[in-house]
Known about the structure:
Blueprint: H1 8-22, H2 25-28, E1 33-35, E2 38-58, E3 64-85, E4 88-93, H3 97-125
Antiparallel strand pairs: 1-2, 2-3, 3-4
Amino acid sequence: MNEEGQTGRGVSERIIRQLRETMTIDRVYGEPIERAGTTVVPVASIRIGGGGGGGGGIDANDNSGSGEGGGFGAVARPVGAYVIKEGSVRWKPTLDVNRLVVGLNLTAVAYFFFAWRIERARARRR
């Protein structure tokens, strides 16, 4: 039992219950916003992860001990919005500038690395 009087299973069940409460459809689809006959429904991408465990043992002085724990995390990022106007629905993706910058940086690093390798190979042939 832990400090709260719960077994490892109780802790796991509590974590799963918290996860269910956190991850609802409202987290993916935001509250619709309506202005001048146009409705916008924001959409997010949600990623979750979690884990838990427990164990026990005896130290060098023959003292026994045990422990358990767990946790989870969630990350949400906007991906776009549905725009509803005059009976038609359009998808408008968001531009994630951070991902764009990282992608461009990785592309530049790869370009310079391979250009250096090619130039080095040419120099060896001479």
